[in-house]
Structures are given as C-alpha cells and as structure tokens.
Amino acid sequence: MLRLEKRPAPSRFWLWAAPIVAVLCTMVAGGLMFAALGKNPIEALRTIFWEPLFGELAWYFRGQLLLKAGPLVLIAIGLAMGYRAGIWNIGAEGQYIIGAVVGASVGLAFYPAEHWFIFPLAILAGALGGMTWGLIPAILRVKFRTNEILVSLMLVYVAQTILAMAALGFLRNPEGNNFPGSRNLSQYPATANPELISGTGLHWGVVTALIVVLLGWLILSRHRFGFEIRLAGQAPRAARFAGVNPDRMVLICLGLSGALAGLAGIFEVTGPSGIISPDFNVGYGFTAIIVAFLGRLHPVGILLAGLLMALTYIGGEYAATNLGLPSAAVQAFQGMLLFFLLALDVFGNYRLRFGSGRAV
Amino acid sequence: MLGGIDPFILIASLIAASVPILLAALGEAVVERAGVLNLGVEGMMIMGAVTGFMVSVATGSPLLGFLAAMAGAMALSLIFAFLTQVMLANQVASGLALTLFGLGFSSLLGQGYVGVKPPLTTAVPFGPLADLPVIGEILFSHDWITYLSLALVGLVWFVLNRTRTGLILRAVGENAEAAHGLGYKVRRIRLLAILFGAALAGLGGAYISLVRVPQWTDGITAGAGWIALAIVVFASWRPLRVLAGAWLFGGLTVLQLNLQAAGSGIPVEYLSMAPYLITIIVLVLISSGKGRALDAPAALGQNFHASR
Question: Which of B92, B147, B239, B241 sits in a 20 to 30 Å window from A329, CA-based?
Fold first, then answer.
C-alpha cells in the first residue's frame, strides 16, 4: 500500500525539479491530446515551442516574447509576495483593469498637450489605481475579517463593468465615429510607451518588470520584510511572537500586488494595446497566478516561468493560424501544466512510502 | 416606469435565465459545505456544455445530452479531486487550473460543432394549466430541467439539514480532524461532494448550450461559473438562499437586457455591477460577526492529511 509521509523539511530538490518535470509531462500529455484530435503531435509541439524561438519568423516572435512576459512577471511577483505570506489575491485581473483605466484617464486628461511629465504621471496614476483596488479586499479583511479570495474575485467583475463604462462612456474617443474605445494612447506622443530597442519588445513596462525581479529577489532574500513574509506564511504564530503585525502584512501585500498589477495595466494600454476597449484585458491577471506558482513564488523563477508562459501564448497563436488549432487550445495547455505542477509538488512536502500505514 | 416591460414575462424569463447559475451554485454549495473550495465551476460548466451538446447532436436526444454533460463535468472534476484529495495540492490553484483547462479543452472538443443546431428541449406540456393568465406564464411555461433544478434545491436543503448524511458532510466541512477521529472517511466524503457539485455544474452548463442559447460557441458559459461562486457566498452556503441569490442575479441580468432593449435611460452598468457589490456587502456582514451562524464552513479550502 502506498502512502504519503510528511517530510521534516521541504525538499529543495523537488522544489525546482517539479516545474521541469511538469513541463516535460505537459508536452507528452499535450502531444497525446493533439494526436487524439487528429493533429500531428510532433508538428503541433514544434509549432508551439520551437518555431517562435528558432523558426524562420523567429525575428518577429522573439520581440513578442518580452512583450507578453513583461506584464505576467510584473503581476506574478506581487502575487507571489502575498502567497508566501498566506494572503490570496486572485483579483489581479481587476487591479490590472483599474490601473489601466485610471492611468489612461489621467493621461488623456491632458490631451492634446505635450509635456514630459504626462507619461510618468499616468504611470503613477495607474499604480495608485491598482493599489486602491487591491487595498479594498485588504481593508475589508483587516476591518471585518472577510475572505480576500472572494472579495478580490468579485472586484474583478466590478472592474470589468467600469472598463465597459470607460470604453463606451467617459473615455470614448470623440473622434472615433462612435466606435467603443478610447483615444489611442500609444499614438499620443505624451503618453506613448514605445519599443525602446526595435525588434526586442523591450518597453518601459518590461524594464520595470526586470527591475522588480531584482528588487523582489533582494527583498525576499536579504531584507527583514522578506523574512517576515516567509515567517508569516510558514509559522503564523511564531511570526506574531516575533512582532510581525498580521494586519500590516495584509495591507502591504495586497497594496503592493495591486500596484504592480496596475502598473502592468497602464504599461499595456500605453504600449502594445494602445486603447481602452471593453475587451482590452486578456486574462494576464489570471495567468499570472499560474506564473507565480510555476516560478515557485521566487522572483527569478517567475521570470523564467513568465517567459515560458509567453511562449505558449505566442506558439498557441501561431498554431492557431498555421495548424487550425483553436486559439483556446493554449488554455488547455496552461491548465495541464498547472495540473502536473500541483500534482508533482506533493513530493516536495511528502515522501512516498510503501508499507502499511493505516489506510485513509 | 419600466418602459413597457411586462413584469410577468420578466418573472418567467428570470426563472429560466437563472437555471444554469442556480444548478452550479447549488452544487458548489454542497462542495463547500464539505470543506472544499472548487474554483473550477466555470471549467466544469463549459465541459458539461460541450459534452452535452455533442452527445445530444449525435443521438438526437436532449436527455442523453444532459446525462453526458453530467458525466463530462464529473470526469473533469476527478482531476481536481485527485489533485486536492490525493496529492494534497492547493485548492485555489487546482480550481483555477480546472477552469483554464476546461475552457481550452472544451473549445478543442467543440471545434466541429459551431453553427450546428441541437435537438429542442420543449416546455413540459401542462395542457390547460399553461393557458391560465399570469400563473400559467410564470409557473407552467418551463422545461423539465427548470422544475428539476427547483426540486433539487428542496432535496439538497433536506439532505443537508435533516439527514445523517448531511450532518456527516457538514462535520467534514467544519472540522475534518474531528470527523476523521470519529471514523468518517474524510477524503471519500469530499470526493463524493466534488462529484455531486460537478454533476450539477455540468447540467447547468448543458442548459446554456442546449436550451438558453442554443448552439455551441467557444467560451459559451461567459462567466456563469464565477457568478455561481459569488451566489454561494451571497447565500452564506444555504440552499434556499442559493435559490434567492440565483433569482436575484438572474433577475438583474434579465432586467438589464430588457432595459437595454427598451432604451431606458437607466445606465445598465450599475445594474450589472450590483450583484457583485451586494455579495461583497453580504460578505462583510457575515464576517464582521453580526451573525456567527452565517459563517463559512470552518475547514473551507484546507486540505486534510491523516497522519495517524
């Protein structure tokens, strides 16, 4: 009889082996899934994972990689801080939307003026907007002990209706022939967030993401606050004795992850996406949750996971046009990846034992 | 006031519109009462929607379609059950993965079915009763799934509150350690609860693709699963309040569409926001200790591993 026995300390080997094994398992299972649907599995996998990096159109796709990974990494690092402390923000999608809407409103308020300070101001407004949206579940949890998972999730839907109101109402482009959507922020020079080096996909949001990776790593491994986060997550009682204020932790973690999600939103709307439209958000806030887990809640791991997840997006789109796979197939892939990762994670905390434990 | 909207037709259509979210929320309420937070409702609903659609198109029978929808969603939920009950994985992440996978996989399965018409599910023939003024419209104009969903509300209420099975299920959700100590098989009970929740979510999903729309498109459930999760919280995990919540959410959706069609000046965005804001307010009221009896199952979202 197989049974699980708790390890005295989590295994460091499985912490990093699990994501790698999970990726391999996903490729095998994904190949089987494509084969069952009558597609050539080798060709499908090559189209998704190889062509964007090394195929003949790679010069185009490589730029897309950073463009898509940037927001994912930015959001996931904020989420990971909270998850480590046992604070579950799953409403990053809403914070992302509000960041974009607030930032764009501030930026467009100056239209058509040209000043150097408009772009930084819009970015700041985006961060504050996201932070405010993230602080709502935080304050409710601190004040009333509400569950932040549910509140942050509900706020995603409120954010989506606010987005619709913005795109159809107060931000609608007056010269847009009544089409829904705002003025194009990436074509308004004062708010544009252009590619800094042509062909790389590197824009200010990606630069910010890279800086946040570095800062996140420093805070978690070298700063007292990072230690408090880990303590609060792994041993809440010990954390209280050590003087860690749990309420302050909730406010900081949710505020911070909201601000980072808001930043991702405003960088996206001033750059790659350009306009606030009702379907401007594409689920980065939800995918970032997978990125955070896949990256082991560690900034450097998140950077790698973000790049991998960006690859599945790009490869998935490429496979959609080339092989006639539905574009949603990539979601099946991402879901599968998370399945395998979660299943393999058990070996980090438990070890497999043969023999007669009492059956459960 | 409402610009020529017939209130009786409104009530009849809100009953029909709330069937999918009612079924899914009712199932999820049972799952959460057993202490499991399954955020994969949207994924299970859409799996039900696609498998139900495929089977009923292939066989020409809506009944077989609905049965297949339940089976399809239950099969998907087994992944969640395996991850959380056997591999002790985080329930939030496992549920999200289930939704992602369900959305993607259903679109792969449904590729050849876009634009196909499913066999019709007609209203139950009540004969002369259906012709009664007002009452006929509201009570006797629906299909059998609608009546089934209402019957299930009563059944779930009875089982949870008046039977030994319900008591054990709630014990597992409140204190898994104690239930285990009394000799109940925590993981088996939770597995059964997850399967029951999945069956209802699948049924609700199939109701969207076979009755409400009725056709197949990618992402056809359009967030109904998330609304169901909101309803469970709104209802503070009680079956009868789930019904009230489903009617409130369904009613606001119907009212919103009607107001839009009638060209009324009321901004519809406030209406579509309202259910979520109300849910948050309810959450605050529950949590601030105004009613301890309204509290969430104590072991909600926590995995159980028997070390002894």
Answer: B92
